[in-house]
Design brief:
The protein is α+β, with helices and mostly antiparallel strands and 145 residues long. It has 2 domains: 5-64, no CATH class; 69-128, no CATH class. The protein has helices spanning 11-19, 45-56, 69-80, 86-95, 101-110, 113-137, and strands at residues 5-8, 25-30, 36-40, 61-63, 140-143. The strands form 2 sheets. Strands 3-2-4 form a 3-stranded antiparallel sheet, sandwiched between helices. A two-stranded parallel sheet has the order 1-5. The chain is elongated. The two termini are 27 Å apart.
Length: 145
């Protein structure tokens, strides 16, 4: 029977890594220490050193996946379903149609600061949920601080 490996991991850092969609950036979880390693194609010596370490001990490191755009889009849809203000619901449903949906969604919420705050909390919960699910999938149990 396989048991999960318990690791102390900075959950906020893991969530940030999953949300970083910058071109050329990758994050790896060290399965021995719980450390999150950042690698960018724009890094020089330090980046090459980290990449070499990962290549040499590839079984020790797990590439941290980025949140897919369809997941983030679904989060917006699910959040809209929690809103009671029918006018705001209509505005957001229009905003998430087509290219530029994420920007328009955020722009609409700028005019509704209470709902914007609820969105940030909702989004944080979803990201954390995905991070915990991923850790479980790779056989890691998060040690809470």
């Amino acid at each position: 029977m396989d048991r999960n490996k318990s690791l102390k991991i900075d959950l906020d850092e893991l969530c940030n890594a999953m949300e970083d969609h910058s071109f050329g950036n990758d994050y790896y979880l060290d399965l021995e220490t719980g450390e999150i390693l950042f690698v960018s194609e724009y890094m020089e010596d330090e980046g090459i050193e980290i990449e070499n370490r990962i290549e040499e001990e590839y079984e020790r490191y797990e590439l941290i996946p980025q949140t897919e755009s369809y997941e983030a889009y679904r989060d917006m849809e699910d959040f809209i379903a929690t809103i009671n203000d029918e006018h705001l619901v209509d505005l957001l449903e229009v905003a998430i149609q087509g290219k530029g949906a994420f920007r328009r969604f955020k722009d609409v919420l700028l005019n509704y600061p209470d709902e914007e705050e609820k969105w940030f909390l909702f989004q944080d919960d979803r990201i954390e949920e995905r991070a915990r699910e991923w850790l479980n999938e790779i056989g890691v149990t998060l040690i809470e601080e």
